[in-house]
Amino acid sequence: MMNKNFELLAPAGSFEILKAVIEAGADAVYVGGSKYGARAYANNFTEEELLEAIDYVHLRGKKLFLTVNTLFKNSELSEELYEYLLPYYERGLDAVIVQDFGVLAYLKGHFKDLPVHASTQMTVTGAEGAKLLKDLGVERIVLARELSIAEMKRIQEEADVELEVFVHGALCYSFSGQCLFSSILGGRSGNRGRCAQPCRLPYTVCDENKKVCKKESYVLSLKDLCGIEYLSQLHDAGVYSLKIEGRMKQASYAAGVVSYYRKYIDFAQQVTKEDMQRLYELGNRCGFTSKYFTDRNDKSMITFDKPSYEKSNDALHQEIAEKYIGKQSQIPVTGTVMIQKGQPLKFYASCNDRDNTASVICVSVSGGEVFEAKNKPLELKDVWERMNKTGGTNFYFAGLEVHLDEGVFVPNGVLNQLRRDVLDALETKLLEKYFRTVDNRAEESSGKIAKNEENAQYEIICSCETITQLHRCLEYGKSSTIYADSQIFNKKNFIDELKNCIEKAHNYHKRIYLRLPAIFRAHTAEFYKENAGELKHLPLDGFVVRNYEEIYFVSTYFPQYRITADYNLYTYNDFAKAAYERCGITYTTIPLELNWKEIKERYNFNSEIVVYGYYPLMTTANCVHKSTAGCDTKSRISYLKDRYGVLFPVKNFCGECYNVIYNSVPAMLFQEMKNMKEMGIYRFRLDFTIENGEEVSNILDLFEGKGRKTDYTKGHYRRGVE
User: How many CB atoms lie within 10 A of CB 272?
Assistant: First the structure.
């Protein structure tokens, strides 16, 4: 045996699939309801189906987790979520999977004993982020899919929290939750469950001079993950739950994949070539990859030639369908029927508790009269057969005794009802331990933290990623604060270069914040921990954090500093904003996907808004340059050209080993600032990323109402997302 402590977690896009994966060996299932799931285009469960599904899995000693893993707008969170979740909570829902920081806070206030799992869309990549979420009441972390097994082990050892890891199925090219590609191009947000999968489209890769270096290919399309050969290593790393992707896949795929993982979880042996071939034939995207388990990235993970998903063995699918689909395992029951003259009918039944097989659940029902037979009396065989008619129920009688007096008669309808009553009573007895009640609904709150807004000062903030941009922004008289990206400073001379930068900024009478990396994995965390002592002695004015790891790191090592949460620490709703402030965040950044009406509904005090910048469409572990030209650890800007000839800049951050793909044109909202001020926004930010010095100067001139006009977009400010 390998590890009975593993949980095998399967997707279920319908009740039929749920039953099939349970039959195939899943320990738990995750499903989407009618709202708020990251697969909005899946069939998903109606309320009636979901309530039935919760009972179905509990009767079999399994668990059901509900995806509530989209980002919530204010009205949805304050007006809809409670009533949506309440019936499932009362029925015994085992956990919800969440992405939104505000939803996490809301659930801990309204459904205190409902377990919460942090979705992979929270992009937890380090022990620091896991510790933060654990401290806030999260019981399980679904790790970012880009992590190596060594990183998983570090997180488990340092954070001591239950870990869930994807082991099979489709992979996003972008760090989950760090993708705006679909929403910016077509208004369909992956963060709202409506991703249009632009990563599965072809792109031509161009170098920094926009010269073609790889003609049209599927350079952003990843092969499917298959981790079945790494079960032992995952076990040794302390991973608890093995997650299979595929809530939009067909039943035979889901059940088939579950069956093979079940086999190798239960019996420690090397995966056979035959079983690997069967997994391949069940469905794959140009093959499998497991590279993330051992490496940061690799071009072997990319499909390149085509992104299509293929299944190649209809006979195998049919075989699996016949074995698992439409089947319904039943629970063995022991029963005793008493049919005695002058006594009401009695039926005693018992079965083992599915969660604790040493515990026996017993029920009894009685009812109906026993008559003296006038013609043909009841026969033992007939009663036994009638009571054994349990097809279509959750039970079957593994042992049934019938005590029948001679010369008596009971109508068949009465016997049928007695059987139904005892099975209903047994089902209720088995399920009642899962049921919950809510005595009093928690007092509603907007999540706002009251502040004195009378003395608020308007601020212009310039965020810079190059030393040239930094110098131009220091010279700009209207800005009061500079965000200096960490990549500006060479790691070998990090403290000295940062110190000089701080002195220059202060000489210009500007505050300066260190903007930490977009991704804060183990090697990055170690670097900053090693330098924390010297950092404390620098006269920094604050930090810009971009992930949960950095919130924990800065609040632990630098509690006295101001902290700005960047736009990818989403504050769609006021509950999220307030929750971040309770974690020590001073300023939040308004999410890039909200439109002006939604921003107006938001509590905007101590929030800033990006009024200029190339929006980051993807933050990725895989490197476009490495995949096409090879790795030379030299940061550069290259381009992706789509089918329409549009160029999307790609910047590789070699120091931390991640890429950012930017929109083709910058967003510019200078003309909207008057309305923004009326919404209570006091902090306005210009984000410089790929611009050269001349371009920075021109944008600063445009901000002043002069300068050379340039192409721009208003992003989501007018249109928003679904």
Answer: 12
Paired tokens of 32: 């989407």
Position 3 scores a pLDDT of 44
User: pLDDT above 90 covers what percent of the chain?
Assistant: 85
Give the domain ranges of the chain.
7-171+223-290, 331-431, 459-613+667-703
Identity of residue 611: V
For 623-669, the three-class secondary structure string (H helix, E strand, C coil) is CHHHHHHCCCCCCCEEEEECCCCCEEEEEEECCCCEEEEECCCCEEC
CB-based contact 44:34 (threshold 8 Å): yes
State how far the Cα of 207 lies from the Cα of 209, in Å rounded to an integer. Answer: 5
Cβ atoms of 203 and 122 closer than 8 Å: no
The DSSP bridge pattern shows strands 224-226 and 288-289 to be parallel
Q: Which of 614, 597, 606 is nearest to 648 (CA)?
A: 614
Q: Say whether pLDDT at 41 is over 70.
A: no
Residue type (1 letter), 705: G
Question: Which CATH number is 7-171+223-290 given?
Answer: 3.20.20.70
Any residues with CB less than 8 A from the CB of 350 and at least 6 apart, and which?
333, 334, 335, 360, 361, 362, 363, 426
Which amino acid appears at position 244 of this protein?
I
Q: What is the pLDDT of residue 563?
A: 98
Helix axes 522-530, 127-135, angle to 10 degrees: 90
Separation of alpha carbons 331 and 233, rounded Å: 34
Domain 459-613+667-703 indexed as CATH 3.40.50.720:
no
Mean pLDDT of the chain: 93
DSSP string, 267-294: S--PPPHHHHHHHHHH-BSSSEE-GGGT
The encoded tokens of residue 479 equal 């800005």
Domains 7-171+223-290 and 459-613+667-703 share a fold: yes
Name the CA radius of gyration of the chain, rounded. 30
- CA–chain centroid gap for 566, Å, is 19
Structure tokens at 448: 């706002």
In the prediction, which pLDDT does 526 show?
A: 97
Q: Which amino acid is at 462?
A: C
Residues 221-231: tens digit of each pLDDT: 999 999 999 99
Q: pLDDT of 524-541, one tens digit each?
A: 999 999 999 999 999 999
Give yes or no for a contact between 524 and 552, defined as CB atoms under 8 angstroms apart. no
Distances, alpha carbon 439 to alpha carbons 111, 112, 442, 624, in Å: 11, 12, 9, 54
- Give the tens place of pLDDT for each residue, 112-155: 999 999 999 999 999 999 999 999 999 999 999 999 999 999 99
Q: Which two tokens stand for residue 15?
A: 């009740």
pLDDT at position 442 is 56
